[in-house]
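User: Teach me something about this protein's shape.
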Amino acid sequence: MPAHSWQWLFLSVVIGQWLPATQGAPVYTGSRVLSPPVTPQGIRLFNNSCVIQSHNVTLDHNKGSGDTFQLYNFVCDGLWRKPANGQAGGPIFLWSGSRRGTLRDAGAYRGLFEYAAEHEALVVFADRRYFGWSLPDEYFRDGSITYLTYEQTVQDDAQLVQLIRKQYGAQQSPAIIFTATSKLGVLARLLQPDVFAGVVASSAVLLGYPGQEPTVDAEMPYKIVTKAANDANPNCAANIHTALVALTSGGNATSLPGASALTVQVNRIQQLKTDCHGTSVVGNNTLDELVAWTEAVIEHLAEEDGRMLAPSATNTVHDLGHFCNTFFADANQTPSTALQSLADALSYEFGSNLACNQLTFGNNLLPEMDEASNFMFVDLTAVASSYLDCSGEGLNAHYMKQSTGVDDMFVPHLEAGIDSFEKRCRERFPGLAMDEAWGARILGPNITAVLRNSSNMVFINGAHDANSAASVTWNVSDSIFALSLPLGAATDFYDTAVDLPVLRPLRAFVNTQIRRWVAAVQPTNSTAPGPAPSTSPRSASGRKLQQSASVPCPDCRCLPKRTPTCRSCFREDADGVKCYDNSGGEYPDDDYPADGICAQCLVIFR
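Assistant: First, the predicted structure itself:
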């Protein structure tokens, strides 16, 4: 999954089956099936030029020595320009693993190979510690899970790159890190700038921690998904809200017509959740939990918008647009019809197993591809994911996320926000102290100030992705850019053959930045062209303007100050926030466009 999404956090902490709570580190008590890793069917790319292998990496990088564990990785050299005649080889493109495991990442993010073809790169998909096959201790004995942190993961990636360089004779090859977890990418450049020449990260979720600036509107994730629903169909958000209100009643509210029919639909939805996720111990499988689970599914579908996933064998489509236009397009649905539409829609989604496979991280096991048996099942993922979030590193999602039910289509929960999250974490991990200051301590109290001390980053945000509420959506400097997908999701690592046209200039911009990063490391023997001459416009005052790579922002108003809904439309300078025209020219403060629309999300002063 991408990486660090709201659904990940909710489903791993609230919905996944909790193992018996113990003092200190959790103890794994279930059965485990782990087949020997083999090259999976469907990922035999480039004439079998990909191999699965493992390397010993350090368990605790803070000590620098001691225990090691096997970090699995999937390496493809079929596109790589190998070192020859004293010339350095092509760059190394490292995919820093998600919580799904190496092989599923390699199968899903094939767009990475297209970037590799452009740059003749060696492609490496790395497991993340405690996910996939890479378990320092598969039973979490002796408190080993305490080594599960973002900082340790970044050090894993850096150590793996050095081992790959030695293995392939690629000591002079610069490494670019691709990730769907922006915190990993940022920390890679902050902690290991000599190893990683640049970062391409999706959904730059770096905001929303206690003590951080800028602050984030707690309702914004829900507002974003509501807008995505309305973008798909003008009736969708209202109908979904009607359905969720009816679901919240549990079918028992006498004020709602057709109460008995509502109960039938509530039971259908409950059964879908149980079939997919099992019965949760925490919360005793409450109605409030069921509503939260349903909303998490809807958010997940919004994340799929615009990704243009290749059709499956049954040619099904799974995104919020299809969800809205197929089941919620009729005007003014009643509570009964809206709730039935919701049950039908969820049946469609989960009947395909797609949503279950992507959202299940508990009792019913996470499937990983395996050539011999088709699937192997790893049911430790929920524990590791929950621990990572409860330690404080996933705190921002829970700290900032709460629906009021007023300006969005969702409904308030009986238990919501940071207090509820901390309560669940204490129940699950009694010996774990949540580090509420993690974000401000590691990422800094002001993320812009921290990023300005670094360079060479591209963030890809999706306007339909709830994660963008807490994302860096503005250009930080002339080498740290935030790209925008106005009608899509954040992760742009799929095949260009199924891309929307809006993604093509985005990919071209990413390729341009990679060329610059590689050329800066290999100035004498890189075949990549150097940086293009600057064509940045200048303001009326003569100051140089830095032109953003973002595609135009839809419906962003030219307001006198930056707002959470239109962050990427406005750029601050010494004189305040400006709005810019198509050419990058500056509008005077008192002369905004007549229609009030920012023609382009372009400019910051440098």
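Now, about its shape. The two ends are 36 Å apart (CA to CA). Residues 21-213+443-521 form a domain with the Rossmann fold fold (CATH 3.40.50.1820). If you'd like, I can walk through any region in more detail.
User: That's plenty for now, thanks!
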